[in-house]
């Protein structure tokens, strides 16, 4: 007699899986699309769709709660969808862009990431801030804001409230920097290239860094954008290192610890290399620039839907002060580096 062909108990067919994901994933994508529309209609660069999606997600979560039918789709947005977005982000950085900066600027990009992150973790320990929250704030400050925070949390495995708080802190500090940097650059008499490198090396979100750099003119905009992309490139190596560090810090008495393998980081690096070959059609890269913000916003909307505001309030003001201190550290460090390399 032929063996039965039915799926094992508990397994879902593809149509069943899609039906289970549809309610939660759909609402996350709707929030993401609405967030992008709000930013585009207002024309305000500081209105990062990721942050708008977070606010809308938290608000909707308060109103409707967390219906059981939405949980599978929300969980899918938080992990698989987010990881796919990080991988696709690799198409927007090429090795040629990085090489055009020059060795001095590349070293500066590595230094601001390699020093700001451990400094923030150390200072968070001194201030009594939870180590995971310190790690997320440090990653967002050192690398590329919201994208770095949600990517780092794939190995840090922090609570949703940690991610939400870190996103709020980084957004606030980055927005203040976006406003102040053009005035500070003029006050210090920085050249266009130096000002652009400073903005790209110090400001958190890509849109914030690019916006601030653009205030210094075309040359500043170009140098600032490429410097910021150099920090984005360091996202994958940083996540790999954080996976190892988290495993070491949580090692039990038995002396056994297994570092999580963030395969999406290797995917990111793979697409950087592929995009650098020139084999990827331009329309594919352009489509990734549309798709990645949508996917990231949907993932963060899912985090917002799962956030407990009471737990968020319990974090207190110390993490906010940590974010301010970390921002001041990277600002001064980047400025000194830019002055040194000329």
Q: Keyphrases for this structure?
A:
mainly alpha; single chain; 342 residues
Protein model, in words:
- By secondary structure, this protein is mainly α.
- The protein has one domain (25-341).
- 79% of the residues lie in helices and 0% in strands.
- It has 16 helices and no strands.
- It has helices spanning 14-42, 49-64, 71-89, 95-101, 103-127, 131-144, 146-156, 160-188, 192-202, 206-214, 218-233, 235-249, 263-276, 282-306, 309-313, 318-341.
- The termini are far apart.
- 50% of the residues are buried.
- The model is unreliable at 1-9 and 253-257 (pLDDT under 50).
Distance between the termini: 80 Å
Strand percentage = under 5%
| Helical/strand content category | mainly alpha
Task: Count up the helices.
Answer: 16
Whole-number total of structural domains? 1
**Uncertain stretches of 5 or more adjacent residues:** 1-9, 253-257
Largest sheet: none
What is the number of beta strands? 0
- Radius of gyration, rounded? 21 Å
Series of H and E elements = HHHHHHHHHHHHHHHH
Rough outline: globular
Q: Mean pLDDT, rounded to whole units?
A: 84
